[in-house]
Amino acid sequence: MSKSIISEGKTKQEAIDKGLKMIKLPKELCEIKVIEDNKKSFFDILAPRLVKVEIKEIEAKKPEQIEIETTDEELHVAKTEVEEFLKEFLEKAKIEAETKVEIKEKCLYVSINGKNVGNLIGYRGDALYALENILKAIANKESENRVIVRLDIENYKQKRVETLKEFAKKKALIVEKTGKILTLEPMKAYERKIIHSALQDNPNVETRSIGQEPKRRIVITKKDN
User: Fold this and answer.
1) Sorting pLDDT into bands at 50, 70 and 90, what band is 40?
2) Domain annotation for the chain: domains and CATH numbers
3) Which of 8, 61, 122, 131 counts the highest number of beta carbons within 10 A?
4) Cα–Cα distance between 98 and 111 in angstroms, integer?
5) pLDDT attached to residue 166
């Protein structure tokens, strides 16, 4: 459920500024509506002006839940399709790398390892996730039910987990010391999950996700202990 507060001020801007501090969200992620504005007239010039605004968090759309009932036959067909694609893809790209495709927990786990696979990872894993999406499309080409594909290259994802954990702790320390609200840059869902998990036991800060995909991000705030 999205947060909503009512804020007051002598001007619209003052009411908004107060409200944003109360709701602990940046302006671009809020819906702001003036609900009362007692403007002064010539006859009541001495009366104080009061502006009330309602500030509501823009609620993110929830993804639909998909029932996964992939059969063993579908998984084995998908495995073969992915293996054949990767062999041809790496040959054409002239990349020497070892690939491994395994069926575990009703998913396809794909690993690629080699000396010159940096371009397959890309900036912050962008190329890796693009390739993962291609593999998903190939794996699901002959399947009626959704086949889940998990790709990792040179153990990038695990390394990224450790990097994000350290990043989260450093940002939390800033919030603890300054009391400032920190809004992190947009992240993929699995990266946000890592940040939330890394800070869930911190007694001094709290985290929440705000905004719409693909610009959904995390806000770190200091707890009122």
Assistant:
1) low
2) 4-57 (no CATH), 72-154 (3.30.300.20), 159-222 (3.30.1370.50)
3) 131
4) 8
5) 96
